[in-house]
Design goal:
With 461 residues, the chain is α+β, with helices and mostly antiparallel strands. The chain folds into two domains: 201 residues, no CATH class; 245 residues, no CATH class. It is elongated. The two termini are 23 Å apart.
Length: 461
C-alpha cells in the first residue's frame, strides 16, 4: 500500500471512536504541556539572571589586573606584572576580540561651584566601540583627543554644592541629570608623592549610556594623557627613603594609604613598576570564551574577573531545577504513553476481522505494522502540537501575572520578568518527543496485530 493511503486510513480509523481518541490525545496534550512549561521555567530563570547581570556589566568583558602578594601570603600561581609584554600575551589568546590596557587615577574635581571626586581611566580610544562603550549623548573618544573625556551616567552624583544641605545618611542620593556634564569643563586636581599639585582642565564630550552600570561611575580619557597624569602622581615614589625596595605607596585620592607589596621579576629593578598598567579590559567573542579565558588568565598568574564567572552557579541551579521539573513532566507523558498503548490494543480487539481481511487481500506484515504505528504517531503528533500551543498560552499568563508580581523584588519595577521562555529548539524537541512517545507506544500493539491468524480472526470476528 502507498504511504499516503496508509496515513489516510490511519486517520480515519482514529476517529471511529472519537471519545476514546480525544481522551488519549488529551493525555498527550497534558504531558507535552507539562514538560514544555516546566523546562521553560528553568530557561527563563537563566535568561532573566543574565539580563540582570548585563545591567552591571557585559558577559563578554573581562577585567584583568596584575597579582599582588603580601608577606606571608601563600600563592599557588606565579605573580605576573601587567606590562606591555603581558598585554601582547593576552591579545594573542584565542577568543580575544578586543583589548585595551588602562591607567587609573583619581582626585578632587570641580564643576562650577560643585565639588566632588571621580576616578579617571585612560583607555585606547580606537577600542571603545569594540569594548562595548555606548554613548547616550555626545560622542566617544577619538585618536585626536587629549583632554576630552566621556563620563558615566552616575558621575554627576559625585558633585555637590558645598552650600547645599546634604540629605539623610540612610537615603541614597537622587540621580542627577548627567547632561549637566556634557560639553562642560571639569577641573581635576592631582597630587604626587612630593605633595605637588597639578590641575587639569577636562572637557566632557560624551555621556555613556546607562544600559550598563559597569562604567556608570567612571570618567574615561585617552590613554597617553592619563599615563602622563599617572607618571606625575608617581613622581617621588621610588626616591622616598621611607619606602623599602620592592614596595610602593597605594594612592587613595590625594593621600597615600599604605605600603603594598609589588612583585618584581628576576633581573628587573623595582623602577620598572612605573610601567605597569592599572588593569586591562578584554572583550571576548562570546560567553563561553569569557569563562575559558578568565580561567586561563588566572592560571597564568593574573587577577581576572568577569560577570560571566557568576553564571556557572546560576546555570547549575537551573539545570537541577530543570531536571526535577522535566522529570515531573516526563512522568505525565509516560502516563499518556500507557494510554496510547491501551487505546491501540483495544483497537486491535475491535478490528480483528478488518485485520484479517487486509491479510487475505494481500497486505504485508509491514503494511499492517505501519498502519498501527501511523495511528499511534498521529495521536502523539496531535497531542504534541496542541500541547505546544497551550504551553505558549500558559507561558504568556505566567510572564504577565506571576512575572509582574516578582519584578519589584528583583529590581525590575514596571517591567514584567520573563520567567518562562520557550525557545524554538524546545518546540521542536517537544513535538519530536511526543511523536516518538506515540511511535514507541504503538510498537507492541502493531506487533500483536501482525501475529493475528487470519482464519481464526475471520471465524471469531
Amino acid at each position: 500500500m502507498k504511504s499516503f493511503d496508509l496515513l489516510t486510513l490511519a486517520n480515519r480509523n482514529l476517529w471511529r471512536r472519537k471519545g476514546r481518541t480525544f481522551l488519549t490525545v488529551l493525555g498527550v496534550i497534558i504531558g507535552t504541556t507539562a514538560i514544555v512549561v516546566m523546562l521553560s521555567l528553568g530557561i527563563g530563570l537563566v535568561e532573566s539572571q543574565k539580563k540582570q547581570m548585563e545591567q552591571w556589566g557585559s558577559l563578554n568583558m573581562i577585567r584583568v589586573q596584575q597579582s599582588y602578594s603580601f608577606p606571608g601570603e601563600p600563592s599557588d600561581n606565579p605573580q605576573r606584572l601587567l606590562n606591555d609584554e603581558a598585554i601582547e600575551e593576552i591579545r594573542a589568546i584565542e577568543g580575544v576580540l578586543a583589548l585595551s590596557p588602562a591607567y587609573e587615577v583619581g582626585g578632587e574635581a570641580k564643576l562650577g561651584r560643585k565639588m566632588g571626586y571621580f576616578s579617571l581611566i585612560g583607555i585606547d580610544p580606537a577600542m571603545m566601540d569594540l569594548l562595548e562603550f555606548e554613548v547616550s549623548h555626545g560622542r566617544l573618544l577619538t585618536g585626536d583627543d587629549k583632554f576630552n573625556v566621556v563620563a558615566g551616567s552616575w558621575v554627576i552624583n559625585n558633585f555637590m554644592d558645598p552650600k547645599e544641605q546634604p540629605g539623610r545618611w540612610d537615603e541614597p542620593p537622587p540621580q542627577g541629570d548627567p547632561l549637566e556634564l556634557l560639553n562642560k569643563r571639569v577641573s581635576l586636581t592631582l597630587m604626587n608623592q612630593r605633595q605637588q599639585k597639578r590641575v587639569y582642565s577636562l572637557n566632557v564630550v560624551g555621556i555613556l549610556s546607562d544600559t550598563s552600570m559597569e562604567h556608570a561611575h567612571s570618567v574615561f580619557g585617552p590613554l597617553p594623557e592619563i599615563k602622563k597624569m599617572r607618571d606625575f602622581i608617581q613622581q617621588g615614589m621610588q626616591n622616598d627613603p621611607m619606602i623599602p625596595p620592592g614596595k610602593a605607596m597605594e594612592m587613595s585620592g590625594s593621600t597615600a594609604d599604605r605600603v603594598v607589596e609589588v612583585p618584581t621579576q628576576p633581573g628587573r629593578s623595582s623602577g620598572r613598576e612605573k610601567d605597569q598598567y592599572s588593569f586591562a579590559l578584554v572583550r571576548t567573542e562570546d560567553v563561553a570564551f569569557t569563562r575559558a579565558i578568565s580561567t586561563d588568565l588566572r592560571e597564568r598568574g593574573f587577577n581576572a574577573y568577569s560577570m560571566a564567572d557568576n553564571l556557572a552557579g546560576i546555570e547549575n541551579a537551573a539545570r537541577q531545577m530543570q531536571a526535577v521539573l522535566g522529570g515531573i513532566g516526563a512522568i505525565t507523558l509516560l502516563v499518556a504513553a500507557i494510554g496510547i498503548t491501551n487505546t491501540m490494543v483495544m483497537s486491535i480487539y475491535e478490528r480483528t476481522r478488518e485485520i484479517a481481511i487486509m491479510k487475505v487481500v494481500g497486505a504485508s506484515f509491514g503494511d499492517i505494522r505501519t498502519l498501527f504505528l501511523a495511528e499511534s504517531s498521529l495521536i502523539g503528533l496531535m497531542g504534541g502540537s496542541i500541547g505546544i500551543g497551550l504551553s505558549y498560552l500558559l507561558s504568556y499568563i505566567l510572564n504577565k501575572y506571576l512575572g509582574a508580581a516578582m519584578a519589584p523584588g528583583m529590581g525590575q519595577d514596571g517591567v514584567a520578568l520573563q520567567i518562562s521562555m520557550i525557545p524554538a529548539w524546545l518546540v521542536l524537541f517537544a513535538v519530536a518527543f511526543s511523536i516518538g512517545i506515540g511511535l514507541i507506544s504503538g510498537i507492541y500493539p502493531a506487533n500483536r496485530a501482525i501475529k493475528l491468524d487470519p482464519i481464526t480472526a475471520m471465524r471469531n470476528g
